[in-house]
Design a protein that fits this description.
The protein is α/β, with parallel strands linked by helices and about 80 residues long. The protein is about 20% helix and about 10% strand. The chain has three helices and three strands. A three-stranded parallel β-sheet has the order 1-2-3, with no helix packed on it.
Length: about 80
């Protein structure tokens, strides 16, 4: 969990290199669509919490690349 920390979009590249990562909580961070795009390479990610972030409709395409994603939390984002 990185929830409520000062992480930014730069965390996406680091997280994508974690081959066994299954759950990631980015709630209330500065992550945006750019950071979400970098997460597309997180092949084992099954649960992603993006609540209270600036992620918008532009980031939805990156989410479709997460083949094993089972649970997604988006409340209080800019996704319509």
């Amino acid at each position: 969990s990185l929830a409520r920390t000062k992480v930014t979009d730069a965390i996406g590249e680091l997280v994508a290199r974690m081959p066994r990562l299954q759950r990631l909580d980015l709630r209330a961070t500065a992550v945006t669509d750019a950071g979400l795009a970098a997460l597309a390479d997180a092949a084992e990610l099954r649960e992603l919490v993006l609540a209270q972030t600036a992620v918008s409709d532009a980031g939805v395409e990156a989410l479709t690349k997460l083949a094993k994603l089972e649970r997604l939390v988006l409340w209080s984002t800019r996704i319509s």
